[in-house]
Design a protein that fits this description.
Elements (H helix, E strand, L loop, with lengths): L1 H22 L3 E7 L1 H13 L4 E5 L5 E5 L4 H10 L10 H4 L9 H21 L4 E9 L14 E8 L5 H15 L8 E7 L14 E4 L2 E4 L3 H28 L15
Parallel strand pairs: 5-6
Antiparallel strand pairs: 1-3, 2-3, 4-5, 7-8
Helix pairs in contact: 1-7
Protein name: Lipoprotein
Main location: membrane
Membrane topology: Lipid-anchor
Length: 264
């Protein structure tokens, strides 16, 4: 009965320690990321003093985890940095054949959409641009008419406020105008919006670290690490007690030697 009671107590302690370990785990922030994008996101979070790590999934993709208490802060930080980058469709994906014959109207719509996606991706790669969207207008002109409606494009960007707009806007307008046949520079409009955060190239204050039983960890993780260590210590104590009880119960009986009595 004593051994059964010890084993029952051990199972309860293991369950409690497991619960403590699960409570101390980080939470998933983003999943199904490629390695380059995951590296950029982790670097942006660490630069802002938010501990983050990558976990490789079975598919080879990456998952980013952060402290659950700083989840909201991490989401806002990445959103302000334009991460994760928006995925734009390329020409091959837009015009991927599905076995059906596309009508001229459908092909034209696909062409306009593909141009918008390709230009949006390219503009997003310009230094200082956090995110971008390009909307292209290609009027369907009658070749027999003399006056044709000109093509136009509208660009929306979120940009780093440390960049000079008078240098950034001409680059964007030239890029878009040269990317569409028949589109003039003057028919490209750009709407810039500054990212409402500190300058992206400024580093955060030094991350505070503390020592917990000789282990240096981030200050935010000190309490969770202490609970984890206490849980592991409880497991070790209960396991040792259970083992001692088991050995005591299964010990071999010893024979008591009787003193020799001389024969009469």
């Amino acid at each position: 009965m004593a051994l059964r009671s010890v084993l029952k107590t051990g199972r309860l302690a293991l369950a409690l320690a497991g619960a403590l370990l699960l409570a101390a785990c980080d939470t998933d922030l983003y999943t199904n990321l490629d390695e380059r994008e995951a590296n950029l996101m982790v670097a942006a979070l660490i630069d802002r003093g938010i501990p983050a790590s990558r976990v490789v999934e079975k598919s080879g993709k990456m998952t980013i985890t952060v402290d659950k208490d700083r989840f909201a802060e991490a989401v806002k930080t990445l959103n302000d940095a334009g991460l994760p980058r928006e995925r734009f469709a390329n020409m091959g994906e837009v015009f991927k054949r599905d076995g059906l014959v596309a009508s001229p109207v459908q092909e034209r719509a696909q062409m306009i959409y593909a141009l918008s996606e390709e230009l949006s991706r390219t503009v997003s790669e310009i230094d200082g641009v956090v995110s971008a969207r390009v909307h292209v207008v290609l009027p369907e002109n009658d070749p027999l008419k003399r006056d044709a409606a000109p093509s136009s494009a509208s660009v929306f960007i979120r940009y780093d406020p440390s960049m000079k707009l008078n240098e950034l806007l001409p680059q964007i307008k030239t890029l878009v105008a040269n990317g569409i046949a028949g589109l003039s520079y003057d028919k490209v409009s750009v709407t810039p919006v500054a990212v409402p955060t500190a300058k992206l190239n400024e580093s955060a204050s030094p991350t505070p670290y503390v020592s917990v039983m000789g282990i240096w960890v981030h200050q935010e993780s000190a309490g969770r690490l202490m609970w984890m260590l206490l849980g592991l210590a409880a497991i070790a104590i209960v396991a040792a007690a259970a083992l001692a009880a088991l050995l005591w119960r299964n010990r071999k009986p010893t024979l008591k030697l009787q003193p020799l009595v001389p024969a009469k």
